[in-house]
Amino acid sequence: MAEEKKGFFSRLKAGLSKTRDNIVAGIDAVFYGASEIDDDFYEELEEILIMGDIGVNATNDIIERMKEEVKKKHLRHPSECKELLVESIKEQMRVGETAYDFENEQSIIFIIGVNGVGKTTSVGKLAGILKRQGKKVLIAAADTFRAAAGDQLAEWAHRAGVDMIGGADGADPASVIYDAVSAAKARKVDVLICDTAGRLHNKKNLMEELKKMNRIIDREFPDAHRENLIVLDGTTGQNALAQAKEFGEVAELTGVILTKMDGTAKGGIAVAIQSELNVPVKYIGVGETIEDLQKFNADEFVNALFDVETKEAETNESAEDCVLESNTSVENKVQNDSGVINEGSLETEDSAEQVLSENVVSQEGSNTEKSEEDNEEKPKKKKWFFWK
Ligand SMILES: Nc1nc2c(ncn2[C@@H]2O[C@H](COP(=O)(O)OP(=O)(O)O)[C@@H](O)[C@H]2O)c(=O)[nH]1
Ligand SMILES: [Mg+2]
């Protein structure tokens, strides 16, 4: 167990190493280089945070809070402020208790965002995570706009060992959603994840398309728990924030998947998003393979970002969810589970149905292994969903 946790934490650190260097190198110089807590100190700190993509507004908030705390606690030396900073960012970034409720309800997850940010990849990774939890997962290829988008998703369906409903290139995405929702209901699927097109250059169309899909779900499956996760590429900095704002005008965002955090992303963007939009970062992508999606853990993320040592014992339990036993076990799963690719037509659904019922045995098997936490009676919270 300790090994697994250690593995997870080192992975996160390794994934964030480039990111971390972008903030931490400069910030330690401010905390340990300055001799007094004065205007110069605050100015340097401000500059570093803004350069680290935390953004002007979030940085101002952070500095204001820090000034108050410094006064209250009568701090004298800049080095004493690092812990203040780390703690205040952690507090701000903590994901609410209900953030992952969709895992325990019948849910429909929309994955939205502009082209190239990692939507399709994230659908595949998320399907993999949920499948490994023993859930019955279906994915919908509602990006019919980009040629071969369906093939790309089909490949992910195969890797994750889940079924997919798709449509021909150029088909009406709403019809794919209709087919997918009907199949999800008929097959008692736990989670339906919908990949969508990322055309932001035609905002009106995109808005209409998303609204239409929403109407279909409202009509066909009103009881489903709804999630709208926006995928943002962490390496695009403040652009990511602008995209989230734009999509936020179209849809009620319930969370962020921040991708490419293994690259040159400045992790501060996660702080900026949370602070400015009040939308929690729920997952981070740290690579291109199926295991490279992790639940966002504020404490670990901020520790990794500022290179704060974490005692292994303190690592959050939720982190375990995302740790694979080993790479081999995933490969085995992929080989054993035949991900049947459906073209959205009724004839092919039957064969998928068969494969699904064959899968039931193994899925029930893994259900019994669910943690005690899952068995605990949790008050069900209905998340009301509004599409603007
Ligand atoms: N390094 C890295 N690459 C990623 C990550 N997520 C996605 N990608 C890559 O980003 C590219 C675009 O991803 P895709 O899922 O097709 O984006 P979409 O257009 O939004 O569906 C692909 O080459 C992915 O492999 C990540 O977390 N880290
Ligand atoms: Mg895509």
Keywords:
388 residues; alpha/beta; Four Helix Bundle (Hemerythrin (Met), subunit A); Rossmann fold; 2 domains; nine-stranded mixed beta sheet; elongated; disordered N terminus; binds guanosine-5'-diphosphate; binds magnesium ion
Global geometry:
elongated
> Numbering strands along the chain, what is their spatial order in the largest sheet?
8-7-6-5-1-4-2-3-9
CATH topology value of the largest domain? Rossmann fold
Count of individual helical segments: 16
Rounded mean pLDDT is 78
| Total count of domains | 2
Strand content: 5-15%
Give the bound compounds: guanosine-5'-diphosphate, magnesium ion
CATH superfamily of the largest domain: P-loop containing nucleotide triphosphate hydrolases
Q: Based on the structure given, which CATH architecture of the largest domain is correct? A: 3-Layer(aba) Sandwich
Uncertain runs are: 1-6, 311-388
> Which radius of gyration do the C-alpha atoms yield?
22 Å
How many distinct beta strands? 9
First-residue to last-residue Cα separation: 45 Å
The helical percent reads 40-55%
Write down the CATH class of the largest domain: Alpha Beta
Word description of this protein:
- The chain has 388 residues and is an alpha/beta fold.
- The chain folds into two domains: 16-93, Up-down Bundle (Four Helix Bundle (Hemerythrin (Met), subunit A)); 103-368, P-loop containing nucleotide triphosphate hydrolases (Rossmann fold).
- 52% of the residues lie in helices and 12% in strands.
- The protein contains 16 helices and nine strands.
- Strands 8-7-6-5-1-4-2-3-9 form a nine-stranded mixed sheet, sandwiched between helices.
- The longest helix is centred in the last third of the chain and has 22 residues, at 346-367.
- It is elongated.
- Bound molecules: guanosine-5'-diphosphate (GDP) and magnesium ion.
